[in-house]
Design brief:
The complex is a heterodimer of chains A (361) and B (259). Chain A is mostly helical and 361 residues long. Helix content of chain A is 71%, strand content 0%. The N and C termini of chain A lie far apart (60 Å). The chains are: A mainly alpha (361), B alpha/beta (259). Bound molecules: adenosine-5'-triphosphate and magnesium ion. The site of magnesium ion has 4 residues of chain B, from helix 1.
């Protein structure tokens, strides 16, 4: 029995029922945590530079030192609750930095190596007749745009209509089966999609066929399930009350879907589609077997090989030829362009969702 | 113009759950019928069967008949869309279309059905509907701002304006004033009295004074017991229900005694 428990004979203290905890408490100065962090960082740096320890070890030691110091310091001054808070904050931030590390490293590598070839020739020439230095990715950029564009053209209507069926009409076994297969399709390896498209086109055009359209079909196989999923989620978010409001105004179901449900979900659907595009634009394996590679401009998706950025990058790295350095530079350059495209697509997705989102002002 | 609705032995189900049992009543044209009763007794459920909104809930169904001027609303060849064209509805919870402006919300009944009006006629209709719902003064300067930017009560009045803009023969209102201040409530009640010269109105309300003020006929719904379906206990002229009800349960409910 501790002294804080009141014996029954005592009058309960009604003014301070929680035992009168004062509102103020010990507090570390604002600069405490940053100072400790800098100190720990400097110590780690010194260990690395002077004692010549491994850099990873130094970083880990500095982080551990920071956590221990801040925790004990806070515990003595501020008490256990705030100390735990600081401890967990440190852990969470640490995990975040760790997750960020590979990302930053990838971006840094691609940017530093890729900018070597960011010149006018790179963006305006193809690889026709290029054996050594120079050459460009014009044909690959256009090829990527055409194939991804076609894939989008195929996937968006199919995917959106499927999702509309699932959410607005689908009941019973058929809908369950479709949902199941969409889920399965989300997980198929991209090379399988490529081989499927190739086999399909071989049936029509004979063995050895290569064309942009086949690549687009392969990408569609990968893209459709993502479009279905994201559209489905967005349609489910549209409150049922809105559909009922529309029905009560004697609006038929198809018009309700077209004019009330879809506009309400448009922002989310557009974002989902854009992200689905970003997801497939960098695919290599399926395009390798379906669209192949060519040095020159071929912008006709219905005839012959068509180069895309990822496949181009792959071949430049895999078979560099005599002037290896020039080849590698082109490979990195193409990779950087691809990365920028993906980044732009993500920004576009954000802009779209801002633009189309229902406003309240 | 105004329609009489005859409900006969109506049982209303949610899948296997019988929510309301054995309702028979006549809803008179050119009058206001009020439905009162404790929460969960099936007033909204019943109201939604009158314009075939009930069947939108998966597996929901009804048995019995609802006849409007000789047409059975649940007859085999009846298109629910045509039913709803004649019987409009204001929901218990405000539900303006978030993608549409205030103006478009009011015009939604026409616009969503691709009915084209001259711009000036449309402007007229929107203004008239908003004035009837006592919202015009508050929104006339921001008609083209989104409807979801309004307050809860304003949204409710917007939904009322939207429902009356299509000029249905029958108007069903599910607690239209539950989110409104006395002034707007007064305006909506005036609107009901005005509308009833041409239309048939059914209103669900928890406000007994309101039922007494605006309605000609009042129906009292109650649960038959815990876990049992709701039923229509009695329906009669409002003055009679509020002075000398035939059933003890009605009297208890109206005077605030339960059980
Ligand atoms: N969508 C639904 N699915 C299944 N049961 C439902 C559904 N909607 C309502 N119910 C049930 O039907 C019964 C009647 O509900 P209803 O909404 O008609 O009550 P109410 O009289 O309008 O109540 P309130 O005054 O609170 O609005 C309740 O038992 C409710 O749980
Ligand atoms: Mg209700």
């Amino acid at each position: 029995m501790s002294t804080s428990l009141k014996t029954p004979e005592q009058d309960p203290d009604l003014n301070t029922p929680l035992g009168g905890v004062s509102l103020t408490a010990g507090q570390l100065p604002r600069s405490a945590a940053p100072t400790t962090l800098v100190a720990a960082g400097v110590a780690g740096l010194l260990l690395w530079l002077l004692a010549d320890w491994a850099i990873v070890l130094c970083a880990l030691l500095a982080a551990a030192a920071y956590v221990v110091i801040v925790y004990t310091w806070s515990r003595t001054v501020e008490g256990p609750r705030k100390a735990t808070d600081r401890f967990v904050t440190a852990l969470v931030s640490g995990a975040f930095l760790l997750a960020l590390l590979p990302l930053i490293s990838v971006i840094a590598t691609v940017v530093t190596r890729g900018v070597a070839r960011f010149d006018a020739e790179f963006f305006t020439y193809s690889m026709i007749g290029v054996t050594g230095e120079g050459g460009g990715i014009y044909h690959a950029m256009i090829g990527t745009l055409i194939i991804t564009g076609l894939a989008t053209l195929i996937s968006v209507p199919v995917g959106m209509l499927t999702a509309i069926y699932l959410v607005e009409y689908g009941r019973g076994k058929l809908a369950k089966a479709i949902t199941f297969f969409v889920d399965v399709m989300t997980g198929i390896p991209s090379i399988v999609a490529g081989l499927f498209a190739y086999a399909l086109f071989v049936m029509v055009f004979g063995p050895g066929v290569r064309m942009g359209l086949a690549g687009a079909v392969a990408l569609s196989v990968l893209m459709i399930p993502t479009v279905v999923r994201s559209t489905e989620e967005m349609l489910k978010l549209v409150p049922n009350e809105l559909r009922e409001a529309s029905y009560a105004l004697a609006v038929p179901k198809w018009r309700t879907i077209l004019k009330v449900v879809l506009p309400t979900a448009l922002a989310g659907i557009a974002t989902g589609v854009t992200l689905a595009i970003a997801r497939v634009i960098g695919e290599t394996a399926p395009l390798l077997v379906t669209a192949g590679l060519t040095d020159g401009d071929n912008f006709d998706p219905f005839d012959g090989r068509m180069t895309t950025l990822s496949v181009f990058s792959y071949y430049e790295y895999q078979s560099p030829g005599l002037f290896a350095e020039a080849s590698f530079d082109r490979a990195w350059g193409a990779a950087l362009v691809l990365m920028i495209i993906v980044m732009v697509l993500n920004l576009v997705a954000r802009a779209i969702s801002k633009l189309f989102a229902p406003k309240s002002r | 113009m105004a329609k009489r609705i005859e409900v006969k032995d109506l049982d209303i189900y949610y899948d296997k759950f019988l929510a309301v049992q054995g309702v028979s009543m006549t809803i008179q044209p050119r009058s206001v019928t009020a439905l009162i009763g404790p929460s969960g007794c099936g007033k909204s459920t019943f109201l939604r069967t009158l314009n075939r909104m009930h069947e939108l809930v998966p597996n929901a169904r009804v048995e019995g008949s609802v006849v409007m001027d000789d047409d059975d609303l649940y007859g085999p060849n009846v298109d629910p869309v045509n039913v709803r064209r004649q019987i409009g509805m204001v929901f218990q919870r405000a539900n303006p279309f978030p993608t549409m402006s205030i103006y478009d919300n009011v015009a939604a009944g026409l616009k969503l059905n691709n009915k084209r009006l001259k711009k000036s006629d449309m402007d007229d209709l929107v203004e008239r509907s908003l004035k009837s719902a006592n919202l015009w003064e508050e929104v006339k300067d921001r008609l083209h701002k989104p409807g979801s930017g309004l307050s809860g009560g304003q949204q409710q009045r917007l939904c009322i304006a939207r429902a009356i803009a299509v000029q249905p023969e029958v108007l069903l209102m599910d607690e239209p004033c539950s989110a409104l201040d006395p002034i707007s409530t007064q305006a909506i009640e005036d609107l009901m009295l005005e509308l009833k010269t041409n239309y048939t109105i059914v209103i669900v309300t928890h406000n007994m004074q309101q039922a007494a003020r605006v309605s000609d006929t009042t129906g009292f719904f109650n649960l038959q017991g815990v876990g049992k379906p709701g039923e229509l206990v009695e329906i009669d002229e409002t003055t009679k229900i509020f002075s000398t009800p035939a059933q003890k349960a009605t009297e208890d409910y109206i005077s605030g005694r339960f059980g």
